[in-house]
Specification:
The structure holds two protein chains of two kinds.
Chain A (H helix, E strand, L loop, with lengths): L5 E5 L3 H13 L3 E5 L2 H10 L4 E5 L8 H11 L4 E6 L4 H9 L4 E4 L4 H31 L1 E2 L2 E2 L3 H13 L6 E4 L6 H10 L8 E5 L5 H9 E2 L11 E2 L1 H4 L4 E5 L6 H13 L1 E3 L6 E3 L3 E6 L3 H6 L5 H7 L2 E4 L9 H17 L5 E2 L1 H9 L5 H15 L4 E2 L5 H6 L15 H15 L4 H8 L3 H11 L4
Parallel strand pairs in A: 1-2, 1-3, 3-4, 4-5, 8-15, 8-16, 9-12, 12-15, 17-18
Antiparallel strand pairs in A: 6-7, 10-11, 13-14
Chain B lengths: L1 E7 L4 H15 L2 E4 L10 E2 L4 E3 H10 L7 E6 L3 E2 L8 E3 L5 E5 L14 H19 L18 H6 L6 H10 L6 H7 L2
Parallel strand pairs in B: 1-2, 1-5, 4-6, 5-8
Antiparallel strand pairs in B: 3-4, 7-8
Classes of the chains: A alpha/beta, B alpha/beta.
Chain lengths: 453, 189
């Protein structure tokens, strides 16, 4: 069915507004009228019009140019047609400079108005069709708030669907910014616990004692400052899901407490004497290789096995580059709306820049990059120039290397060599150049450290 | 339900007769001919040398006889609305009255040889178009339908006085008294 487009005619002369409105209504459009700029702006706030006909000269209050500027601020996508009985080259230039799409001198030939409106509406229909198709395309690759057409991500979506209604613990592993919390939320909201609370805790953000109190709550007087009893995240999530982000960062003592909760679904509040029983599903996430951490003795292996009942591994963005255009457009659509910027797409060169970038910060970095480009862009599309900052930032020497305290020099070298190889897609010559060593030395290090390529 | 047809100022009989016949066929309604009325002087705008169609409509509505649901005025005067340089006619969308002009339907207006048959054909099409608006029909995308938009004679001459199936169906929905299946069968050629 054809959408009925709305048009607003703004003119201080009632005969003008009425005759133009009547003519447009016969064409099947829904037409409102306004007798001054202020009334037009009020109507523009209340309804979205596809086209505004604005008279240039309106006595008292806002004139046509001021009205048009305000309308364009409120509805940047609307077309404004300026109409005037006093045409001069200067007024025409001013109107067009201020953003008028067309300039019409009245009285005009009926064909002029009809063709003009038809042309604008044809473009609007195409834009709308384009938006619908784009939405359909995105929906095809969408799972909750996750968007991907990568086969490995499709497997993740499938796994999430399968495990959503179970109570089994899930361990999500992936680099920072790959969307671990989004996957956890997808598991929670697509399962039977969806209507119950989803409580997220960042284990890396809090000191050990604070985290303990945060997770299990505390009794009044349990420690200095505990002025009242407080429920912990496990209690608050009863019936739902607790999401333990950065589980690899919790202290050995807390690992023991968590193990007990996972085994018995019971715990004590800090300073408490009575046991509390909860029905909670635990989803944990980490950017670390938890198996390696367990092997190295830094993470309890019994807790690791308890957590690792269902394992979800999220590939970094550089390993699913086909998602970059899809995600960039998704962020562009959402953020341009939120930021009130009229930007409709990305140039081919801009996409090239995005595809060439390594995205050490993954999807989160891409989202931030699109937002930054949107804020500074000057055109209706994002260009390569708008993403120039990516090239400047792409040089950090420790990209992708995570260096927790206590590493040996050899371990640091191993991680750095591996990260450099990853960043350069396993290209040994490029990696050797970047590291300032010759190829044979690099091969020797790869062999010695057993670095996968 | 009936349509009243009225000449506004002197209008020759042949186009009026053709209009009457085509309106009856297109809308399947009784058409009553009213006595001609004089052009209201206040509708004339000397600065444009044209007649205001809105003003003509306003005056016609005041003279609308009881019992007629639609009133169609026909004039030889060149019509305009303020925002446009001319109009062939004007109707109240979903209202009671419409008016149209024969002036620009005449080949002579465009410096072409007179053609009585063409004038009558165009008059019939324009009458159905404007009356269609009073029944709530908007412009149709089919170029042969009388409800399609016309801004020049080429547009007009592409049209017939017979409503397309889509507009006929819409019209049927808008008429308060729906015809019975027997009537529709009888109407078929």
């Amino acid at each position: 069915m054809r959408r009925r487009w709305h048009i607003l005619v703004v003119d201080d002369e009632a005969t003008m507004t009425e005759s133009l409105a009547a003519w447009l209504r016969e064409d099947g459009y829904s037409v409102d009228t306004a007798s001054c700029g202020n009334e037009a702006i009020e109507k523009a706030r209340a309804r979205e019009y596809a086209i505004y006909f604005v008279d240039l000269k309106m006595p008292g209050g806002l004139d046509g140019i001021e009205t048009m500027a305000e309308i364009r601020r409120l509805q940047p996508e609307a077309a404004v047609i300026v109409i005037t009985a006093y045409a001069t080259v200067d007024t025409a230039i001013t109107a067009m400079k201020e953003g008028a799409q067309e300039y019409v001198v009245k009285p005009c030939h009926p064909q002029e108005i009809s063709l003009l409106v038809e042309r604008i509406i044809r473009v609007k229909n195409l834009q709308r069709e384009n938006a619908i198709l784009r939405r359909k395309l995105t929906r095809q690759y969408r799972f909750h708030d996750l968007v991907s057409k990568n086969p490995r991500m499709a497997e993740v979506f499938e796994l999430v669907r399968e495990v959503a209604s179970q109570r089994s613990t899930v361990l999500i592993q992936g680099e920072s910014g790959t969307g671990k919390e989004l996957v956890a939320r997808a598991i929670h909201y697509s399962g039977e616990r969806g209507a119950r609370p989803f409580v997220a805790v960042s284990c890396a953000a809090l000191a050990e004692t604070l985290l303990e109190s945060e997770l299990f709550g505390h009794e009044r007087g349990a420690f200095t400052g505990a002025l009242a009893q407080k429920k912990g995240k496990f209690e608050l999530a009863d019936g739902g899901t607790v999401f333990l982000d950065e589980i690899g960062d919790v202290s050995p003592k807390l690992q023991v407490d968590l193990l007990r909760v996972l085994q018995e679904r019971r715990f004590f509040r800090v300073g408490g004497t009575s046991e509390i029983e909860v029905d909670v599903r635990v989803i944990a996430a980490t950017h670390r290789d938890l198996a390696a951490e367990a092997r190295a003795g830094r993470f309890r292996d019994d807790l690791f096995y308890r957590l690792n009942v269902i394992n979800v591994r999220l590939p970094p963005l550089r390993e699913r580059r086909e998602d970059v255009p899809l995600l960039a457009q998704e962020f562009l659509d959402r953020l341009s709306h939120e930021l009130g910027r009229e930007v409709n797409g990305l140039s081919d060169e801009a996409l090239r820049v995005l595809l060439d970038h390594d995205w050490p910060g993954n999807v989160r970095e891409l989202e931030n990059a699109v937002e930054r480009a949107l804020v500074t862009c000057k055109e209706g599309v994002l260009t390569a120039e708008d993403f120039a900052f990516l090239r400047r930032e792409a040089q950090p020497p420790l990209t992708g290397v995570d260096l927790p305290p206590g590493l040996t020099l050899q371990e640091i070298e191993r991680q750095y060599v591996a990260a450099t190889l990853r960043r350069l897609q396993g290209n040994v010559k490029a990696a050797a150049d970047a590291l300032g060593i010759d190829r044979s030395t690099l091969y020797e290090k790869i062999r010695r450290y057993e670095i996968p390529r | 339900m009936s349509v009243a047809l009225v000449a506004v100022g002197p209008v020759p009989e042949p186009p009026l007769a053709r209009i009457e016949e085509c309106v009856r066929a297109a809308f399947r309604l009784e058409v009553r001919r009213l006595s001609p009325v004089a052009e209201p002087a206040e509708a004339y705008v000397p600065s444009r040398g044209q007649w205001s169609s809105s003003e003509l409509l306003r005056v016609l509505l005041q003279q609308r006889p009881p019992g007629c649901s639609r009133l169609l005025g026909v004039t030889e005067r060149d019509l305009f609305v303020p925002v446009l340089s001319f109009v062939y006619g004007q109707a109240q969308l979903g209202g009671a009255a419409a008016v149209f002009s024969l002036a620009r339907l005449r080949p002579e207006f465009h410096a072409l040889p007179s053609d009585a048959a063409a004038l009558q054909r165009r008059a019939a099409v324009e009458a159905v178009h404007e009356l269609g608006h009073t029944f709530g029909l908007v412009h149709c995308r089919r170029p042969h339908c009388p409800m399609s938009l016309s801004v020049d004679l080429a547009d007009l001459d592409r049209k017939t006085a017979e409503l397309c199936p889509g507009c006929s169906a819409l019209l049927e929905g808008s008429l308060p008294m729906k015809r019975t299946r027997a009537q529709r069968t009888a109407d078929r050629p």
